[in-house]
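Chapter summary example.
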Amino acid sequence: MSLMGIDVGTTGCKVVAFDHAGAVLAQAGREYPLISPQPGWYELDPDQVWDFVCDCLREVNAQLARDPVSALSLSSQGEAMTPITRAGETLANSPISSDIRNRKQTAEMEAALGVERIYQITGQPMGTYYTLPKILWWRDNAPEILERAWKFLCYVDFVAFRLGVEPAIDHSMAARTLAFDVHKLDWSDELLAAGGLRRDQLARPVPSGTIIGEIPRALAADLGFAARVKVVAGGHDQPAGALGAGVLEPGRAMLSIGTTEALASVTSRPRPEMLDYHVSCYPHAAPGLFIALSGNQTGGRLLRWYRDELAAAERASAESSGRDVYDVIVEQTEDAPGRLLMLPYFAGSGTLYEDASATGVLVGMNFDTKRADIVRAILEGLTYEQALGIRRLNEIGVGISHLTAIGGGSRSERWMQIKSDITGLPVSVIHTSEAASLGVAMLAGWATGVYASLQEAAAQLIRLRKTFAPRAERSAHHQRQLEIYAELYQTLRPVYRAMASDK
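The structure predicted for these 503 residues follows.
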């Protein structure tokens, strides 16, 4: 028998089947388009997402004749939601986290309740990302959707519902709606009232790892399942990825290096001081723990920008040699500290300052500067940003002593060594890049008795590929550079304000 993890991301979905020892038996993925009908609007077609999930399920199940799936669980992007009728008809596309059409509604919620009160209840710094302000936009601009909607479902509960189970949402995903009390682990009556919603319009909140139903036989057969399949509540993709990386105790953190960079550290409870640094704190996919989530929206997108705008030679080299273009880009850098400093704010400042006016900066260029120096500055700048975030978390009592890296960027050994040298922490890389799918597969196995605990599941399923240790001399140099890096934003802040006011 096998365990399945379904991950529904912003630009694509993945389905992965694992054996009980953590080996990948089969996997499939599909990309779907992001729809932008107007500037600042970014949404997905939920029916198209469901169709692609079904395609992946059939493709994976076709390869599992010897190891049919006994249980599955789901992870997904946060915040995006779909309004549906009782018959299951979708009423609108799903605005994703980066959709900012709801700025007016976000400001109104902030004015009515106050940033501190919202954070006290939800553990989320106020912003346009969340589900509730997006629903408020519909209230003001498309009230017929609210009138017809039976439920508003995030993608974990939407896909589970389409798989034939009653709508249920795990605590980590519920927290991303801005309507969930992370202390009571229930919907907040105060926030529901502010959003004009009733409890019965949202899915039932349950702990991650709860069995929420079984796929009906006819649907299971149509999707290629060969046996009865339990559906288990999963998690928001970042906590699910942390679980799949074995991040299960305070002191450990997951560093997700993909299109964006996210740092998910384990803590025992939310702390009010986290609001000063705009850190989200909400339930982990491992029940009883919390995740402190911070990050930078630029992340790996910065390497993609370099690839598209500056790396014609590297693209040609990769095409002629059959190598991955990112390997070619990164390996041109020397194994030595860089000569430039980059502020990687190509999509605003990210968590520490939440400054949308902040832009990218490259300091130290002269006529000796090479493309490889810019690449090194990208790799180091993204890491200095994370190191500064780790410093702030340590200052408020969320101590971090070990990082486990996941995502596409974790495949680069040179970058992982840079991460270790700059943060001064050991950085481990796990055996699979599909940590979110692995994390929810662990939940499926734990819920159905395959593993006695999540710790046992982690011991059986997760294997470290390599651990990078900080090099003392390099770390000392980078700590000096970090002090300079920490001053860059503060120095440039008046410039950013002036530039933004002039637009």
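To summarize the output: The chain is about 40% helix and 20% strand.
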